[in-house]
Amino acid sequence: MDLEYGPEYNEFREEVRSFVKDNEGVNLIGESLRSTARVEWQQTLIDNGYFARSTPKEYGGFGGDIDILKTRIIAEEFAKSSIPKPLGGQGIQMLVPTLLELGTEEQKQAYVKPTLRGEIIWCQGYSEPNSGSDLASLQTKGELDGDEWVINGQKIWTSTAKFAQMCFCLVRTEPDAPKHQGISYLLIPMDTPGIEIRPIKQMTGDADFNEVFFTDVRIPAANIVGKRGEGWKVANATLTHERGSLADPDVMQNRLYALIDLMKSETIDGERVIDKPVFRDRLLRVQ
Ligand SMILES: Cc1cc2nc3c(=O)[nH]c(=O)nc-3n(C[C@H](O)[C@H](O)[C@H](O)COP(=O)(O)OP(=O)(O)OC[C@H]3O[C@@H](n4cnc5c(N)ncnc54)[C@H](O)[C@@H]3O)c2cc1C
């Protein structure tokens, strides 16, 4: 069996290596989310086909074919370098593929490109205080009033709500239907009047999660993905992408390389940590 990538892929790897080498000086440490530098870098990655590679051009992607080997090569070469990696997160990894699959043309045009560029940060409004594992029992209410949804209720464990411009949110719109058939999937701008965000402080002192309260929050009726009452289907499409993004081997690889760099730069009693046999042995076990 020939396990070589072959000339086409070897050539592609050289292209990626050369891009990585040319951009080794790019440093975004300290740059806030949505800063011009971050957005420009994200766009550079898209323009070169190193991010959003198979997303159609008309929605802001590179417009290339799906090629798993090329995707692997990009991830491998980026992981070996300290250049900034493409952004991830709930918008890019979960909402964008959901919209490409199930969104309207207007929704794709409005949200996919700015999300890929890192200009819109999203949060996921699924969990509620009494609806976690049994998510379909959720009670946040959405009622249609003319051409607007009026939303009342509470979400919890909403990561990134503090920074988010938008929320993809599950609400009960058909209270008389069986629970899985009474849910709709709405796109809610987080600056809409009536939204209150309360960070949840953890034992560490950090606040990575939030409670989000909705009081008579009004959004356009068109901000629904899929049909009324079919939000469970859309929610599961999103969850498929969430599961795919967990335990990402590229992230693990990046962290391992960062650990090795740290062990090379830190010293104990004047000796590099990586040169100490006991730590070297531990590193090998982690690897
Ligand atoms: C890192 C992280 C980030 C998150 N980010 C978000 C987010 O951005 N947006 C969002 O909406 N949610 C988010 N969540 C919330 C997550 O989806 C909830 O933790 C999940 O819904 C579980 O809900 P719960 O905490 O109420 O647990 P519960 O549902 O109360 O479960 C508690 C325990 O009981 C067990 N259990 C539940 N039902 C049964 C049963 N019938 N039989 C046997 N055992 C059972 C569960 O397995 C669990 O061990 C996040 C969670 C984590 C850990």
List the helices and strands and how they pair.
Blueprint: H1 7-22, H2 36-47, H3 68-79, H4 90-102, H5 105-116, E1 122-125, E2 141-145, E3 148-155, E4 166-172, E5 183-189, E6 195-200, E7 209-220, E8 224-225, H6 231-245, H7 249-265, E9 267-268, E10 271-272, H8 277-286
Parallel strand pairs: 1-4
Antiparallel strand pairs: 2-3, 3-7, 4-5, 5-8, 6-7, 9-10
Helix pairs in contact: 1-3, 3-7, 4-5, 4-6
The structure holds flavin-adenine dinucleotide (FAD).
- Structural class of the secondary elements? alpha+beta
* Secondary-structure element pattern, one letter each: HHHHHEEEEEEEEHHEEH
CATH topology of the largest domain: Butyryl-CoA Dehydrogenase, subunit A, domain 2
Q: Looking at the structure, what is the overall shape? A: globular
Oligomerization: single chain
How far is the first residue's CA from the last residue's CA? 27 Å
What do we call the CATH homologous superfamily of the largest domain? Answer: Butyryl-CoA Dehydrogenase, subunit A, domain 2
The total number of structural domains is 3
Give the ligands present: flavin-adenine dinucleotide
Uncertain runs are: none
CATH class of the largest domain: Mainly Beta
Helix fraction bin = 25-40%
The counted number of beta strands is: 10
Report mean pLDDT, rounded to a whole number.
Answer: 94
Radius of gyration: 22 Å
- Describe the main β-sheet briefly: 4 strands, mixed
- Biggest sheet: strand arrangement: 1-4-5-8
Q: What portion of residues belong to β-strands?
A: 15-25%
| CATH architectural category of the largest domain | Beta Barrel
DSSP summary: helix tally: 8
